[in-house]
Please model this.
Amino acid sequence: MTGTVTLPEPTRTIDTSGKLCPFPIVEAARAVKALEPGAVLCVISTDPGIQLDMPMWCKATRNEHLATVREGKVFRSFVRKNGR
Amino acid sequence: MNVSRTVKAIGLISGGLDSTLALALVRRQGVEVKAVNFYTGLCITETQRRKGGRADGTIPQNEALRAAAELEVDVEYVDISGKAYFDMLVHPRWGYGANANPCVDCRVFMMRRAKEIMEAEGAEFVFTGEVLGQRPKSQRRDTLRIIERESGLEGRLLRPLSAQLLEPTIPEKEGKLDRARLLDISGRSRHRQMELAKELGIANWPQPAGGCCYLTDESFAKKFFDILDAREAAGAERAIDKDDVILLSTGRHFRLSPRAKLVVSRSEVENALLEHHVAGRARLEAKDVLGPIALVEGTPTWEERLVAARIVARYGKGKDTPKVVVEWREGELQEFYEVEPERDEARLEALRL
Model:
């Protein structure tokens, strides 16, 4: 992440640390389903694959992938639920 | 023909070319599609990802997600890796293919689950990327029919790539799908699929590589049947579980005797994986030199413990030293065996699975 990007405060955060493909996405899908349109979910993951998976899942499901940020061995993905 | 936009279908996708094309063919008829990918724990690519990716440091992409993203189709993962699935793998009604792959039973299992999803979602049919005659066991005309009948999806299981060569499905008969816009592909050649991919603007599909399932892998199959046979010989149930599947795809495996098996890690990632499966097994590691973590399951004799220690020593940094001390830890028990690393390759190969 560059210093110029400001990410919104997530409405909800889920921690999928230790879980591997495809379970971070499975849990993210479940969590997004329970959110109101426009709400932001933060998914914490230790699976490097989430850098590829989250943008693709968001494109498929028409949610907005805001960013996936790496902090050491941990990744934080920010997703805004679509307004459908 | 005008197809109602309210028609909904469940598409089973692996992310390979055929299922991606099937998805595109159904979508272009205006059908609302929900894509489903079944998680079995037996996908080679997923396992590669779990182990940190390829040797060059890149991470293989999730092809089902890629396909759904490319076509902007809602996708859901469904975990079927439970006891019922593993029992089916061990006791297939329609038998195995060339290795440990009970493809017909596996398809029936998946289609039954797909039927449940279809009903829950209010969808009218299920479709797949199966192609008549493409695979010797599961994609023959008779087995496609068995899969349809046994799954309870009679008339509601569409194979868009071969539809014109098969009986019309209910949505075709009801005019909800235009049969003329489905295809008549058969056989193993991918030529027509590649042409169609160009026509539909589908790019980046993975090269066909004979499937991504461990059960079709000869080496995996050897280990799969070994563990079942060993359990049966020991009077235990002929069964496997999730832990077994992870261990069968991890490390080097050695059958020490009908009573005992050794699994030796090949990397740091595999070390970490084995550490999660120590319960109920003995854990081995060289004491004063770097080396792999290994697990022994079963009830080894004293001699077999020493053989296991020698093999563990052989794969560590002490392999060229006269003696290596190997720690044997089993619950509260901790012992140290000073052994000569195994240098007899023929003996090693005789034990290797």
Observations:
- Chain B is about 35% helix and 15% strand.
